[in-house]
Recover the amino acids of this structure.
């Protein structure tokens, strides 16, 4: 069958489309399919699942050498208690099934994150306002404490006193940390 | 449908405004990926739960307003035809992934189409916000405010060490993808862009030719975005991106000046020929249209073409894509029918300028 679009190449992409209720069969070649947007253009086309599979393969090549006991353990794979995703499925699709997967596979994640996020494994950035209220406060406190130490070292006592007041206010008041 | 009416629907209201550096930067976008904490992600979620999420968005946010983003409309994917979805993709209001999708997909879109919140895409929530021109800082600020607004009613999946938890490991942490759409005809013509891309990549940023492969061939429109989302703050990501965009703007301006100095007549010839093609052709392929539109837009920016408005590139690049053409025709079109309609639309659109 030839491509119905260019009439040159053979049709390799087949599907039906319905427009205003009319179903149409579409048979096009890959080039025309791309041209017309029938093919998904990949937003994050980095072959991530290959990367993850590779990482796991290296991983099991190392552990596999330690004997069959370990390998047996791997066959009875860990499954995520919330969504039921197993390690092999995660390896295959390269995506998490739910938030709990992060805990389930936590011992495996650092090498993946390091590869994908150029060496990083920990979040620095926005913290949810409501849900992360406590964490927000703690991070803010840490930052103030660091500043305080620095100021004391520099013997900038006046500024240090100001920072100490801020720390007091943050520890004491519940809402004070919200707005500066 | 008249052309004017059709175009009015085709062009998002926010695109009519000119932002800073809009001779080179077409738009700035922030996208945040978020999930509900105790519901499995769409790929593993059960249908009813995902329906509940969509229902939640319908109940809580449909027809709501937040600041300038008024009267959110909720579009359920299964209520739309293939062409309607395609058009939303071409307007960048939804992703191809959502259009193709599965269960309970929806998009919550503000009246001015500046904000689109995709529901049950790869993540439960993909919040996107567009600004015209080069306005990354402003876009980030507003995206955070919108994020806080959603968070008032939603428990996000968030982990102290890993940050915002997403379905794909490439998005974890900030969940943020910031991107800038740039028109870089002089850097593309002189092939300088090819030399610059590797060093941009080293900064953890990605450059893509936006409407397909082969840069100059597709209207010299490039998208620059961050790749890393973990271990770096949103502000720092934006800072790096801003730095690169500023440099690209500078290089593009220099390259334009040099082109004018060294081969001004040839450039002028090329621009006016392209204008001629757009004004008179009866059949035009999308590739040729994209090249000509890019040249004409450059001609406008350089003051060689005065009677045409600047927005023409953004507008016609979107309008002449297959989804829009078929929506305009209200039927499926073959490639040759599309090429004819494309030429007609462009001619008529240029007529409107007179
Ligand atoms: Zn074909
Ligand atoms: Zn899970």
């Amino acid at each position: 069958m030839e491509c119905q679009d260019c009439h040159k190449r053979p049709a390799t992409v087949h599907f039906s489309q319905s427009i205003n209720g009319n179903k149409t069969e579409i048979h096009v070649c890959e080039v025309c399919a791309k041209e017309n947007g029938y093919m998904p253009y990949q937003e994050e086309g980095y072959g991530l699942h290959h990367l993850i599979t590779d990482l796991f393969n290296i991983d099991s090549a190392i552990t596999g050498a330690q004997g069959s006991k370990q390998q047996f353990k791997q066959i009875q794979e860990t499954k995520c208690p919330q969504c039921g995703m197993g390690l092999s499925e995660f390896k295959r699709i390269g995506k998490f099934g739910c938030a709990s997967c992060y805990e389930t596979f936590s011992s495996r994640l650092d090498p993946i994150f390091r590869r994908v996020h150029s060496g990083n494994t920990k979040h620095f950035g926005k913290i949810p306002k409501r849900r992360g209220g406590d964490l927000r406060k703690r991070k803010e406190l840490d930052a103030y404490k660091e500043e305080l130490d620095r100021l004391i070292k520099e013997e900038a006592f006046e500024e240090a006193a100001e920072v100490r007041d801020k720390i007091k206010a943050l520890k004491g008041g519940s809402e004070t940390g919200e707005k500066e | 449908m008249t052309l004017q009416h059709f175009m009015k629907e085709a062009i998002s209201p926010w695109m009519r405004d000119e932002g800073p550096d809009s001779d080179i930067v077409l738009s700035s976008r922030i996208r945040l990926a978020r999930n509900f904490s105790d519901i499995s992600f769409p790929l593993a979620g059960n249908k009813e739960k995902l329906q509940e999420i969509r229902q939640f968005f319908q109940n809580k946010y449909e027809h709501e307003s937040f600041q300038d983003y008024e009267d959110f409309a909720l579009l359920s994917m299964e209520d739309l035809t293939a062409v309607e979805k395609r058009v939303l993709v071409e307007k960048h209001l939804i992703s191809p992934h959502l259009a193709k999708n599965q269960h309970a997909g929806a998009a919550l879109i503000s009246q001015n189409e500046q904000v689109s919140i995709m529901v049950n895409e790869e993540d439960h929530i993909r919040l996107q916000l567009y600004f015209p021109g080069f306005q990354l800082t402003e876009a980030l600020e507003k995206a955070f405010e919108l994020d806080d607004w959603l968070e008032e009613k939603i428990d996000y999946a968030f982990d102290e060490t890993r940050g915002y938890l997403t379905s794909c490991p490439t998005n974890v942490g900030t969940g943020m993808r910031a991107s800038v759409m740039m028109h870089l005809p002089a850097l593309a013509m002189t092939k300088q862009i090819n030399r610059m891309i590797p060093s941009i990549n080293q900064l953890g940023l990605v450059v893509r030719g936006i409407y397909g492969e082969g840069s100059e061939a597709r209207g010299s429109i490039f998208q620059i975005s961050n790749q890393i989302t973990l271990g770096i703050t949103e502000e720092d990501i934006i800072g790096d991106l801003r730095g690169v965009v500023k440099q690209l703007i500078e290089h593009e301006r220099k390259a334009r000046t040099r082109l004018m100095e060294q081969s001004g007549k040839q450039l002028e010839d090329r621009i006016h020929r392209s204008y001629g093609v757009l004004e008179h052709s009866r059949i035009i392929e999308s590739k040729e249209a994209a090249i000509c539109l890019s040249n004409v837009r450059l001609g406008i920016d350089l003051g060689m073409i005065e009677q045409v408005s600047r927005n023409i590139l953004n507008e016609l690049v979107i309008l002449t894509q297959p989804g829009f053409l078929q929506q305009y025709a209200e039927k499926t079109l073959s490639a040759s029918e599309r090429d004819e309609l494309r030429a007609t639309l462009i001619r008529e659109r240029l007529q409107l300028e007179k």
Summary: The mean pLDDT of chain A is 73.
